[in-house]
Amino acid sequence: MDVVLLSRLQFAATTMFHFLFVPLTLGLSILVAWMETRYARTGDEVYLRMTKFWGKIFLINFAVGVVTGITLEFQFGTNWSQYSAYVGDIFGSLLAIEATAAFFLESTFIGIWIFGWKRLSAKAHAAVMWMVAIAGNASAIWILIANAWMQHPVGYTLRESFGGQRAEITDFMAVITQKFAWLTIMHTLAASIVLACFFVMGISAWHLLKKQHEEVFTRSFRMALVPGLIFSIFVAVQGDFHAVDVAHSQPAKMAAMEFHWETQPNAPSYIFAWPDPEAEKNSIEIGKIPGMLSFLIHHDFSTPVTGLKDFPKDERPPIAIVGMAFRVMVALGAYFIIACSIGWFFRKRLQEKPWYLKMMLWSIPLPYIATQAGWIVTEVGRQPWIVYGLMKTSDAVSPVSTGQVGASFVGFIVVYGLLGLAGFTMIAKKAMKGPDLPEETKA
Amino acid sequence: MELQVIWFFLWGLLWAAYFMTDGFDLGVGALYPFLGRDETDKRKMINAIGPLWDGNEVWLITAGGVTFAAFPLVYATMFSSLYTPLMFILFGLIIRGVSFEFRGLSENRLWKKTWDTCIFVGSVTPAILFGVAFANIFMGIPIDGKGIFHGNLFTLLNPYGIMGGLLFLLLFMHHGALWLCIRTKEGLQERSIHTAKVLWPVMLVVLAVFVISSWFYTDLYANYLVTPLLFAVPLLAVAAFAGARIFLAKGKFFPAWGMSSAGIVATTFFGIIGLFPNLFPSSLSPEYSLNLMNSSSSPLTLTIMLWVVVIIVPLVIAYQSWAYYIFRFKVEEEDFTY
């Protein structure tokens, strides 16, 4: 294997592993802060037990998320040094701002939250959790702005510098306010809330099925149901706007998402298809809806949509992966709305509907699959570019040896594998054990 | 003053801040199997750094991020040529970070022992390797005109590099022992005081040997010879460490730790000043060296980032100081959150 492929695999594996933990951190921090606020305002012990129980799960998840995030920043330097030199002026500053303006806040306040139960008043302690939640989400916003610049570079100029070309910033405001970034941010943050809500509902369902800690878990379930419903609808509607924007800013990605080969008016969409990149057509096409793609993108059935054949062969993303991931994401997105709507209908008599509780328990992994699929569409869909239209991934790699990357990749697989195993086992154990009894909570 | 010069020293200052803050966390981790004799002591040691280590580690992320933003070519060359040691540092920091959390949740003794080992290994490895890396940067790294590294991990493990690693480990262990004096009492505190006293002369001898061998191994002294006033900085380091010992003898632990902090910052700046204007010198030829002019970002980026730093870093220092203030008390058994 060559260095480019190994480095890509390593980066993909470490990022996707990191993102198994990030969305829960983002969404659950808000829910825990909300629970703790209710405790601080009402003094109701049940809210304290909820805060402690979900807070503990949050912390295990946070620990793994945080340590796996560190490696990502450094991999740009270790594995993608040509990229780093090319875009450091813009991309590097966004990462640095993230660390300075958001990550510091999150990391410092999480320490205060964990160890400050006895040192702070209930209200101050709840405020600390809000700081963690806000800082965590702010941190995600900066990272997503940086990622959006790779997807849709703006506000820069290319200059000769130190014997090579690089992108230099010309308009900072354009970089941080661009539409692509904010569409991604809304989509990702809302999806994180959906994931956290399904997580809370799923674990609550498990306890409700066993008829234990019913007060804690009916409240938890209902507290997650409302944002779960609102945001699963929001993600779907907003995702549509996002896709329309992608069609304009990254037409090759859109064509891959839809297995769309020929530039044509009245462009169709398929329920299912399978591409044959060699023959430049689809080998399987099921459920053709004529004009649907044109309508979705241009809101008009006849406007032509650019097909894959309009791009040189070496500028097309891996079509099968992108298209399948897109379908998985969309199908699951639809499922989330349905699942939450059913819950809303039964919200007052959840215990009487064990089939629904079972369904929600088994739904826990689904938002994880959906968010991973979303990132596959975004990142694999951008290939072969590392910066869309500007720099190819193959030109971005470090001048390091295959052996070094191979060894570190094996190291990552071993360390992350054990970390994932330990982390998920502990989350599951803690989740199944349930909250502490009332007298144990007051530590 | 030119933007690049300001950024050069900010770059040095961020690394110094990282060594000063996470230094005592790593030091406590390195002392952990020796001072943590029973379960209560171990938990006290973890709780002594527990509320703060995460925030401290962000100084590393910021130092890395700022290198990326202000000197992208240095960032690219530094981390790709130091690939292997950096990976070991990252793995160390990863297993250490989760161990604090995982240990508290493990009830099984075998698991607890595993996480104990991870805390130790995950603290010692980064401490040593940061020293090895910086000593090698002071010496110059075998990089060519394209930033390609001609060497391997063993190139870095030369006598001077190893001395740097040993020096960092000792500085951090001493720093960590002083922190434990602040946050513990009775048996554990007495042992920490004793440890700090034993480590102190060893640390100073290694520091002296390192500073003297820098004359033979590196070009750090060139700037000092041009401006002899700069010798104040290494002298300041020695004075600070002397102060740390005096305060320790008087039982004034917080000032002693403060002095140790100043000593670590001054030691870092001994190297940073010697490097100037280079950030990443090449040992193959001076013309391949990366300096503050040939590797910096555009003036606009440097200006934007300067505003970010000027506005936000004081805020960071303010709320981190508040966190230090909240957790200034002695760790009691009833404080065990885990």
Automatic annotation (TrEMBL), chain A:
GO biological process assignments: aerobic electron transport chain
Superkingdom of this protein's organism: Bacteria
Pfam family, one: Cyt_bd_oxida_I
Membrane topology of the entry: Multi-pass membrane protein
UniProt KW Nucleotide-binding keyword: no
Major location category of this protein: membrane
Compartment(s): Cell inner membrane
Bilayer-crossing regions: 12-33, 53-70, 90-115, 127-150, 180-209, 221-239, 319-347, 359-378, 405-428
Gene Ontology MF: a single term: metal ion binding
GO annotation, cellular component aspect: cytochrome complex; plasma membrane
Keywords, ordered alphabetically: Cell inner membrane, Cell membrane, Electron transport, Heme, Iron, Membrane, Metal-binding, Transmembrane, Transmembrane helix, Transport
Record-stated family: Belongs to the cytochrome ubiquinol oxidase subunit 1 family.
Record's protein name: Cytochrome ubiquinol oxidase subunit I
UniProtKB/TrEMBL annotation, chain B:
GO CC terms, sorted: cytochrome complex; plasma membrane
Xref: InterPro entries: Cyt-d_oxidase_su2
Alphabetical UniProt keywords: Cell membrane, Electron transport, Heme, Iron, Membrane, Metal-binding, Transmembrane, Transmembrane helix, Transport
Gene Ontology process terms (BP): aerobic electron transport chain
Subcellular location(s) per record: Cell membrane
Membrane topology per record: Multi-pass membrane protein
Molecular function terms, GO-annotated: electron transfer activity; metal ion binding; oxidoreductase activity, acting on diphenols and related substances as donors, oxygen as acceptor
Ranges that cross the membrane: 6-35, 82-98, 119-141, 161-182, 198-217, 229-248, 260-280, 300-319
Similarity annotation: Belongs to the cytochrome ubiquinol oxidase subunit 2 family.
Protein name listed in UniProt: Cytochrome d ubiquinol oxidase subunit II
Lineage of origin: Bacteria, Pseudomonadati, Thermodesulfobacteriota, Desulfobacteria, Desulfobacterales
Gene: cydB
